[in-house]
């Protein structure tokens, strides 16, 4: 279908998106949907994972029709080609989360060593708790000594060590044994990623299943390593999330204020911008420029980070990032890394918007580069805010259109906050699951993809699940969808089934709980482990599932694979590029079930996906001796 046939209104389910798509047309600005249209008739080899450009004897295409070109020049067949491509895909995702985790770790280490005054340890209790959980001396030790020891321990987790990762101590025994038997226990995080690059070089690992098993190990190094370190250290540095009220959609932009959008993933830059935006001299400069203040709003995962911890409003998710600039109301977009469409620099240039990159590993031609380090962050943040204030004086009011009114949301459901609300133990949640008022828990995670109507799958899947008394926890870009649909407030419980609605009312919580950014899927892993340990079962025995209905990124593939590898049934709205191999596809859809206790399901229709997930939860409940 062409974009014209489809009509602008079918691209997204939201009014704020529709208004900005119309404005894009009027302003002559190209968006992701225009480019998708230009890229139609995608390459069938690539779509199936059957093209390879890993060496210069190629590139090769493995033709599955007839008997021509069944092998690449080196002799690789379809299974091997797909597995090698998929292995690298997962490794890139795991590397992205984990390198973000490393940057948080570098910041944490700089604090521990007294090298920066721009960051502090805001949650000392959590630092002590995690240190002693991981076997480090904590009682009576000075805080910086504990921090140094913990930093050291986490650096070792990144190394080429051959022991298992520190946080595997959280994993139920049965699950760890299963991983050990399969040879997929994650060791050093970097080690697994590098080994995947090695294995997929020409003429190394030529066994598709063996490569897939290493993909499992690499993904686990992300979930229980890089991502978990990112989450826990971010909490220690910036505060463990507590339930907070906030707002969502493009309506959070303000006509009367200097609008600064933080975009990317790491909280290190965005938290500093927030802190600097409270400096009196900066606020005075904003007032002098005629603004009534500085309004900071988030996009994508860095938006989720500052929403969870500081209640900063969320302007939009992945497919809203371009549209946010098209409002003409944004003075400055400051980015770190990941999911930042290169097109944003060009769109910013169509308005008065300044585009600022902050990371030496993520430069954008046309952007102003302001390199942030743990040591200089506060000064750089002030510099960036001054640029935004200057841009405010150049805003053209006739080009500004801020669509709609923001929607109220509730955020901040860290495991700590959830357990506290339950009175300090998971028992009330387990009891609710046992009696069936909460039949199960599903994590809806991840991105948007312009191939699917924006946020249609997210919102409909969540609504279908809560109707069936299935509690939903949400992270990443899916969060924005849930918020706009009114599911992130206690009032959202009116759309839930009777059982779930009663639990939500008793606790004053929404039927969909916001638990953070994509690295915060580690919180969900941890919660599943807590529940499984409390019940004395494996994680694969729990009535839980995961879903990435509108995913697009390598990181989402890593998340999906670590979820399955933990025994969590995982729904995807679109398949990865693996359909060219029967072996790999069968492994994903069926084969993993026997070895790892879960599998993937691919289903673009959210209503059918809800059926599949419901059935899975019923099966798991029955096996536990509960009502389906
Ligand atoms: Fe990116 Fe994380 Fe996906 Fe959103 S959800 S599009 S990965 S920002 Ni993580
Ligand atoms: Fe072709 Fe093999 Fe080289 Fe890939 S590794 S490009 S299949 S020769």
From TrEMBL:
Positions bound to [4Fe-4S] cluster 1: 43
Keywords, ordered alphabetically: 4Fe-4S, Iron, Iron-sulfur, Metal-binding, Nickel, Oxidoreductase
EC annotation?
Answer: 1.2.7.4
Q: Which SUPFAM superfamilies match?
A: Prismane protein-like
Q: Which domain of life is it from?
A: Bacteria
The residues that the entry says bind [Ni-4Fe-4S] cluster are: 265, 301, 339, 447, 477, 518
UniProt key word Transmembrane: no
> Which GO molecular function, any one, fits this protein according to its record?
nickel cation binding
UniProt-annotated binding residues for [4Fe-4S] cluster 2: 52, 55, 60, 74
- A Pfam family of the record is Prismane
Q: Which GO terms describe its biological process?
A: generation of precursor metabolites and energy; response to hydrogen peroxide
Q: Which cofactor does it need?
A: [4Fe-4S] cluster
> Reaction catalysed by this chain?
CO + 2 oxidized [2Fe-2S]-[ferredoxin] + H2O = 2 reduced [2Fe-2S]-[ferredoxin] + CO2 + 2 H(+)
Q: Which InterPro entries match?
A: CO_DH_a-bundle, CODH, HCP/CODH, Prismane-like_a/b-sand, Prismane-like_sf
Kindly report, in one word, the top-level EC class recorded for this enzyme.
oxidoreductase
Q: Which NCBIfam families match?
A: CO_DH_cata (TIGR01702)
According to UniProt, the name of this protein is Carbon monoxide dehydrogenase
Q: Which organism is it from?
A: Desulfocurvibacter africanus subsp. africanus str. Walvis Bay
């Amino acid at each position: 279908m062409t974009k014209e046939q489809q009509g602008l209104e079918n691209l997204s389910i939201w009014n704020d998106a529709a208004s900005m798509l119309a404005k894009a047309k009027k302003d002559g600005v190209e968006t992701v949907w225009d480019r998708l249209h230009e890229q139609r008739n995608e390459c069938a080899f690539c779509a199936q994972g059957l093209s390879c450009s890993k060496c210069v004897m190629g590139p090769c295409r493995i033709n599955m029709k007839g008997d021509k070109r069944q092998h690449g020049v080196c002799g690789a067949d379809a299974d091997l080609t797909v597995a090698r491509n998929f292995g690298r895909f997962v490794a890139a995702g795991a590397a992205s989360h984990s390198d973000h985790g490393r940057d948080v770790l570098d910041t944490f280490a700089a604090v521990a060593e007294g090298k920066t005054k721009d960051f502090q340890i805001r949650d000392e209790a959590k630092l002590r708790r995690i240190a002693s959980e991981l076997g480090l001396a904590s009682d009576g030790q000075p805080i910086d000594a504990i921090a140094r020891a913990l930093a050291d321990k986490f650096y070792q987790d990144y190394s080429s060590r051959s022991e298992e990762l520190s946080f595997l101590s959280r994993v139920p025994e049965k699950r760890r044994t299963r991983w050990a038997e399969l040879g997929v226990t994650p060791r050093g995080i970097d080690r697994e990623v590098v080994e995947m690059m090695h294995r997929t070089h020409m003429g190394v690992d030529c066994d598709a299943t063996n490569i897939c098993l290493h993909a499992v190990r690499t993904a686990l190094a992300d979930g229980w390593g890089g991502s978990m370190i990112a989450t826990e250290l971010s909490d220690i540095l910036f505060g463990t999330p507590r339930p907070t009220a906030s707002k969502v959609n493009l309506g959070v932009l303000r006509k009367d204020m200097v609008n600064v959008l933080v975009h990317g993933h790491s909280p290190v830059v965005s938290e500093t911008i927030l802190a600097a935006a409270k400096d009196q001299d900066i606020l005075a400069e904003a007032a002098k420029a005629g603004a009534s203040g500085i309004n900071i709003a988030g996009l994508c995962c860095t938006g989720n980070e500052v929403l969870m911890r500081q209640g900063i409003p969320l302007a939009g998710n992945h497919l809203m990032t371009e549209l946010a600039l098209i409002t003409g109301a944004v003075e400055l977009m400051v980015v770190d890394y990941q999911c930042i469409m290169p097109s944003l620099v060009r769109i910013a240039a169509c308005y008065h918007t300044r585009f600022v990159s902050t990371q030496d590993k993520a430069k954008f031609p046309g952007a102003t580069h302001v390199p942030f380090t743990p040591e200089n962050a506060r000064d750089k943040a002030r510099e960036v805010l001054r640029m935004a204030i200057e841009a405010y004086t150049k805003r053209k009011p006739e080009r500004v259109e801020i669509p709609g009114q923001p929607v109220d949301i509730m955020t901040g459901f860290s495991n700590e906050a959830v357990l506290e609300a339950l009175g300090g133990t998971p028992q009330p949640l387990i009891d609710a699951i046992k009696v069936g008022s909460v039949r199960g828990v599903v994590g809806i995670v991840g991105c948007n993809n312009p191939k699917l109507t924006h946020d249609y799958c997210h919102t409909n899947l969540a609504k279908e699940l809560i109707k069936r008394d299935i509690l939903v926890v949400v992270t990443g870009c899916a969060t924005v969808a849930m918020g706009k649909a009114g599911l992130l407030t206690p009032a959202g419980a009116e759309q839930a089934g009777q059982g779930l609605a009663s639990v939500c009312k008793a606790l004053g919580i929404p039927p969909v709980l916001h638990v953070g950014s994509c690295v915060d899927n580690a919180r969900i892993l941890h919660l599943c482990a807590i529940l499984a340990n409390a019940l004395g079962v494996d994680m694969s025995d729990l009535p839980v599932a995961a879903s990435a209905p509108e995913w697009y990124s390598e990181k989402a593939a890593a998340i999906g694979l670590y979820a399955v590898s933990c025994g969590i049934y995982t729904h995807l709205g679109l398949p990865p590029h693996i359909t060219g191999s029967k072996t790999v596809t069968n492994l994903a859809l069926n084969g993993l079930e026997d070895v790892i206790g879960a599998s993937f399901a691919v289903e673009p229709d959210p209503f059918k996906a809800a059926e599949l997930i419901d059935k899975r939860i019923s099966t798991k409940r029955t096996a536990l001796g509960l009502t389906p």
